[in-house]
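Why do we bother with holo predictions? Because pocket geometry can differ from the apo form. Keep that in mind while you read this record for inosinic acid.
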Amino acid sequence: MATLVFATNNPNKIREIRAQLGEQYDFRSLADIGCFEEIPETTPTLKGNALQKARHVFDGYGHDCFSEDTGLEVEALAGAPGVITAHYAGPERDAQANMDKVLAELGDASNRKAQFRTVICLIEQGTTHFFEGICPGQITLEKTGDSGFGYDPIFIPEGAARTFAEMSGSEKLQYSHRARAMAKLIAYLQKH
Ligand code: IMP
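The structure, written out:
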């Protein structure tokens, strides 16, 4: 069974990805490999940040690994918050404040199109591969629902009538940007 480190300690992401990975991989988090330092995410792109995190683990710990970076891209805000999605409203990374800022900036704009975009970087025996997952949708007028995390209460994925925060974990997986990027990663791993 292949060992793979997922360069995160976010329990929400670990739960989502474990649900997808099943029993096929010996799957480890950063804590599992004793990596407790803050990994820098200082590039101007999702792809650059994903590479930076994966390289940190591969170079520092010698494990094959993958990392991901996700951004919410709102069309009427010229793609913001984008790469600064996690700290859009300030360094506290407060989900409520971040959502309030998106809602305030959008006001009552009729174009509420947005997408979540995840970029995964896999480093396998020193070689780098990228996988992207996109979930198109709409920003709501107000927060609705209390499941999930981050911007879930203000995002309705295309094809659904409810926000991510009104869905069960398994329902969210049918639409999730991260799940889509992960499906591409898993398809790659199964082929090689
Ligand atoms: P990161 O890639 O974990 O740094 O996530 C960047 C930002 O996107 C954070 O503010 C997360 O809360 C948010 N985010 C990532 N994935 C999701 C999601 O599935 N739903 C809602 N917000 C998300």
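The chain has five helices and six strands.
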